[in-house]
Request: fold
Amino acid sequence: MADTMPSWPRIQFSVALTHGPDGSVLSSSSVGWMDLGPRMRGPWSAPPSGRQYELDQVQSGTLTLALQNQDRLLDPTNSSSPVAPYMVPMRPCRMEAVWPPSQNRLTKALASGATTAFVATAGAFFLASGLVAAPSGHTTASSWAVPASTPAGAQAVPGTNGVTVIDSTAITVTPGERITLSAYLSRQAAGGDTTVQSQVSLAWFRYDETYLSTSGGAVATVPRQGSWVRAIAIATVPAGAAYCRPVWQMPNATVAANLLYATGWQWERATAATAWADPGTVYPLWTGAVERWPQTWDYQGTYGLLKITAIDAMAALATQNLEPSLPLQLKRFSPSRMFPLNEPEQSTQFYDATGKTRPAVIGISRGLGGGTLTSGQSVEGGGSYGNPGPVLRIDNPFPSLSIDSGCSFLVLDKPGPPTTGAWTRIVCFRTTQVPVVVMTLWCALGPGAFVGAGSQARAWMYLDPAGTLNVQIVNSAGLGGAFAVPIGGLCDGNWHLATMGLSASGLVMNASVDGQVYGITLAQNSHPTGIVADLLGSCATYPTGANLWNYDGDLAYATEVPSLVSDPDLNALGEGFADGWIGDPTWQRMGRILDLASYKGPWRHGAANSSMGGFPGGDTDVMSALQVLADTEAGAVFVPGSGALTVHGRAWRFWQTSPVATFGEDAAAGEIPYNGDFVIDHDPTRIYNTVTVTNTGAVGAAADTSTEVSATDYASQAQYLPRSMAHATNLADTGDAAARTAASPVCCTNTRPLTCGSARSTSTSARTRPCSLRC
Reply:
């Protein structure tokens, strides 16, 4: 509207047409944002996300608007439109207001010479200040230190990408229109080349964000400080161009080192440079993704419109269900094979969840009969957060003995870890059987691993009589290393997560138990090659060799990853499995949830520091999991105009002890326009006199218990009728739920009217209203 009503802000509605909705575009510089604001027609609406009241249902934000499409540029059925291939659902979008609007479409920092964010083919940038004022009025400038002997054609572009790569600061253009770019240039008062020339240019990019061409501007001789020259480039947007970036160039080679200044940049849709104008401040209004692009035609089918609806990050995350946290974490490592071992009862094969290998099958000891291998068993014992089961139970008659005995185990396809590159093996186990000798969790063996001919290689994870995890990696020559993780008592009937891994060089070996990581350096490349058998629950060169050191207990999620998982990731994986990351501050739990959901967009927190209970994940969507955090904090979750998913902690309620809104027409003084839509009222929907607080995940590794506390205020019920509220929390401190009801039986009653003061501003129509909204 600013183009027709200069006193109004300019509204920009931009879409990243060639990108998906995972949120990464909001923090990426390599994105083209196509501004469709000039196509907007009629009213638009962008209700904010979050709760209107603290304890009501949360709603996601939506944006509705109409775009003119008479030229069918945005018609996915128009095969001649360069945009048609990108007119698909869930394209990232954002709406911004620019105030005050002007013809200058550059960022304020670039336009005023207040940025060093340039990418140059030679030299470096810094900020110069205290210069003689340019005709634009600026005394600061972006300073380009151009080295001696710089070849002709050196160039610099604002942003974080080189001139042939799209940048998020690129401006939307239309083929055929005239564009003028200008900047005031100067250089150091003394030194450098006798004569220095420079120019500004316009780089064009296609609809698919690839580089098209550059239109050079007039070459200007740069005067010494304190004089300035205005370099100008005027060009017609070429066919196929959709975006434009300004460029600063050195057309000639340099002899000496030179220091150039540029300020007063201006990019405008014009046939000549006009007086410099401030580009205004950009205010984010709404950020999300266009859900669909429905087309309609008004005026007897002669006026094409797109009446679109967009959703924000909250709506997108509400549609994404969380799996239990253990498989979600394992999938993040892109496993080469993963056996959940969660098949139903009487299963005889166990699938690889990656689909890359054939199912594991049951093996039985040679000629001595088997043990009992039972699928579909429920999870018993503590420490299994994020794995609801079922699990596999192996019951062997003579576990852990170093003799050939009857047993059952699982035989894996494609035996052995990778023979080159890094790898990590992960397995979850629970046992009450203390080994007499050792008890195998997972092993891969060559034919000569212990006796006989052939490769002596082995990769072996086992438990010793102290209940300690031991790991061993040996190459085909029998050279390698082994060590015991110094954590005993693992045969305690609780679940544990064990890992072992090898670096790509074969010289670093690590192992971990429940997130505690240890490692050693090996003397030689110890990649195990020539493996012939890969077994869970026994140690043998199956099917020909004797079975040794059989396992007795439960197993789950035997996983192999084609990388050496980092110590922090192993720590997060193990601690999450052991106790659901109990004790996480709220902000860290938020990060874990978003990481499990593979959310790549921006997020932030406001003093959200409560100590959280265990988090198993699963049986919920991402947004509901985040809402529990906000409820736990007595805070709020929402998406502001910038698009950063936000959770505020309970402290934000105390920061707003006396919020003040001043209504009036003096915007410069911080007054808010008042159109008669402000109402003061008693609000009975904010009265709660029967309150139940349920806390889940309150206790650590042993169990996941719930605490439920209720309180009733009968006096309030008699005054205002019974009104109930159920509140869920996830806190490590079980006493917090009781405190929320015991401290104030009517924990969220607000029966007071919003109080209004009588202070007046200098504006004749302004009223200052301090309003209390706290419970």
